[in-house]
Structure formats: structure tokens, C-alpha cells
Predict the 3D structure of the following.
Amino acid sequence: MRLPVDDEIYNVDAVWLGPPGKTLPFRARYVAYAIAALIFFLLQVLERRLGIGMGFFPLAYSLLVTAGLTRLVLAFVDHDRPVITVAQAFINELTAPRFTTASTTTTLRPSRVAAVPLRLPRHGRRGEES
């Protein structure tokens, strides 16, 4: 006998569908709107700091980049991993102490390297017959 899992409640996304007959042309979770707004605001601040003026094309490119970055962020966010947890994990990965390996530098001087005469294998020696 197979027992049903209790994940049916997570099959429903928290999305705004709008009034009947006047829905948005896309489905997005509520968290997507907040993340997109934050990313768009940060992009606008970055553009102004870089000296890019307001216009149609900078705004259009900002919207495209915002949509792409929002999709990228939401690929890691779900009901088991909220945005705060993913952000904290990212910060922890960046600031975690790393094991450093100590490298040693050695200088070999040809005058101090002892030369060892080449010793041929037994079957390759001259003067001996096998």
C-alpha cells in the first residue's frame, strides 16, 4: 500500500491571478515581485552611478536584466528555501574561512647538484654477453 505524501499543499503557488477575466499574461509568485523590484532598483542606482542617463533603451535593458536575474534567483528559492536562507547561505559561502596551503620555493643551483653517472640496464651494457 502506498501512502500519499503531504506535499499537496505545496502544489499551489502563492500567485496573484487578478480579477476574473483580467489576469496577467504571466504567473509569478508574490516573492518574485519583491525580488524584481529590488533588483530593478539596484540596477537603476548602478546605471546612474555609471553615468547612464534615463531613456527608452537603458530602461528596456534594465527590465530585461531584471527579468533574467529574477528568474535566476528564483531558481534557488522555493517553499523549503526562502529568500533569506538562500541569501544567508550565499554570504556564508563568501565569508567562510578557507584552508590556505603554504607554498615553498626552492632554488636549484647547477653547481651544487651532484652528477650521477648514467647506469645502463643489465641487458644494455657493453662488453657483457648474455
About this structure: The mean pLDDT is 82.
